[in-house]
Amino acid sequence: MNFKNKECLLNFIGFLFLVAQCLSMVEGEVHHYEFVLAEKNFTKLCNTTSKLVVNGSIPGPVIQVHKGDTVFVNVHNQGYYGVTIHWHGVKQPRNPWSDGPEYITQCPIEPGSNFTYEVIFSTEEGTLWWHAHSDWTRAYVHGAIVILPTIGTTYPFPKPDDEDIIILGSLYKANLKDEYDFDLIHGDNDLPHSIAYTINGEPGDLGACSKETTYRRVVDHGKTYLLRLVNAVVSANMFFAIAEHNLTIVGMDASYIKPVTTSYIMIGPGQTMDILLTANQTLGHYYIAARQLWSQQEELDGFDQFNVTAIIEYRGNYTIPLSPSFPSTLPSYKDLTAARKFSASLFRSLASKDHPVNVPLNITTRMFITVSMAKIKCENTTCTALEQGIMLAASANNISWNNPVPTDVLLAYYRNISGVYTTDFPDQPPYYYNFTSYELPDTMAIADLGSKVKVLNYNEAVEIVFQGTNIFTGSEYHPMHLHGHNFYVVGSGYGNYNNETDPKSFNLVDPVAVNTFIVPKNGWLAIRFVANNPGVWFWHCHIDRHMTWGMAAVFIVKNGGTAETSIRKPPPHLPPCKFPLESRVQNNDGSDGKENQPIFI
């Protein structure tokens, strides 16, 4: 081969390499993780208990990707009960099979078996998290997801010098699974309560036997750090602050926002925030601290009042203080005025060329949904009554969600299995009243137990107003989470929503785009989204006590007109479900139903 031919060949190889690089940037990279679920003893607050965890740690492994990547996570269940994993905030385009909520999109991964999730990242950029989505297993089965900008791009703010992950968690005294199962049957209308909170798995040095294990972060004076904050607490909204330091919020739920500088933060379960911290104070030690916001009956005090701490330590030569400085700006447990600051109007999307917004304006489906405490009459149901034939519950539009055990909604929808769910979730509550009154008759609290879903056409433009109620004087802040989609928070307020005057104040220019946002105590939250992700998608309050009691429902987004706008076929080895009549199973996509026979047992 002469020199000219060699040069042409080399040029051609170089061209192919560039093409491959470009395709890789467009399609994203593929990553593989192994998650092993197993019991392990942990000693916290002088008490040793066994906990189900991933890869032997609390929190579990960090998943790190670039925007647009795909991750395969092989989950091995070596525990003693079934578990599922949810990739919180990952939209999973056309792929509800790997979304994870138990009996919504899959049946549990049984002990001794495994399942590989395909986690497809699309527009997300920032911080999300993964967690178990079966019972309350997520208390210890969770971890962060870090989504870096696409290769060749950067943050829409000056690049920080370093970054850290801070995960707020819950701690329970006994074996949580056993306590949870017992309380569901014998719990006198209650469910387990935490005894403490944690930062990166540790209660902090204000707790007994915890000084040596307190999480510490060393910083250099003058540097800026990106803190990736996750609220993985099971059932509490949290206040968060760092002594003598301001916090600048630049992202929420893997979406960038216009910077908000504050001395404290309120963050609901399920929410994530990207925060810039500049180490600009006198060399020393400073507490990172968090405590619960208690927004129910003000006269009650039987909630978890633990103050969880971590420590920021400046590098350098100075006299180490006897105790770190505690944040004076951290609100008290019942400071509702401090909580009100963190309303929808505080946060706005960048709405820039690189990070545009596309708020739906021509709404085709409007829903008004009350989120309430409730009670269920146990006549003609499978529930267990504890007092005068009544069971405490929670509801959305007076429907208390009931998982369709032993199968899941997605498989029933895809295979046209009847009798698993009904398609009559209501767009409105059964009656209107003064939702936030302090004198509401108990008759307003009666809810129906059911597996009712709302069916949406592909590309439906949806507006939902969530209205909090004060039934049983149980109004509080409800963090509502939607699977499979982000939504725009176009408005919020206190009192009863007024459909004539309140829409005039909607932000349709640069509302924040999130997957979880808080309905105010005795107030309302208005959201909009386009149902452009075909599949079965759970939505629920992320206070797990309320989700367990039934403050949840399901959207089914129908296929569009093309293969690219339709649900993907199921993976070949889904965790098995049990069906009473196999002969009634058929596909919803017109195929012969034979490609996935192993799921039927």
Describe this structure in words.
- The chain is mainly beta and 601 residues long.
- The protein is built from 5 helices and 32 strands.
- The chain has helices spanning 3-27, 176-186, 336-340, 409-415, 544-549; strands spanning 30-44, 47-54, 63-66, 70-77, 85-88, 114-120, 126-132, 142-148, 162-171, 196-199, 216-219, 224-231, 238-242, 247-252, 255-262, 265-267, 272-278, 285-292, 308-314, 365-377, 390-396, 399-401, 448-450, 453-456, 460-468, 478-482, 487-494, 513-514, 516-519, 523-531, 535-541, 552-557.
- The strands form 7 sheets. A 6-stranded mixed beta sheet has the order 10-9-12-17-14-15, with no helix packed on it. A 6-stranded mixed beta sheet has the order 21-20-25-30-27-28. The chain has a 5-stranded mixed beta sheet with strand order 11-19-18-13-16, with no helix packed on it.
- Strand 1 (30-44) and strand 2 form a beta hairpin.
- It starts with a helix and ends in a 44-residue tail after the last strand.
- The model is unreliable at 6-26 and 580-601 (pLDDT under 50).
Brief write-up:
This protein has 601 residues and is mostly beta strands.
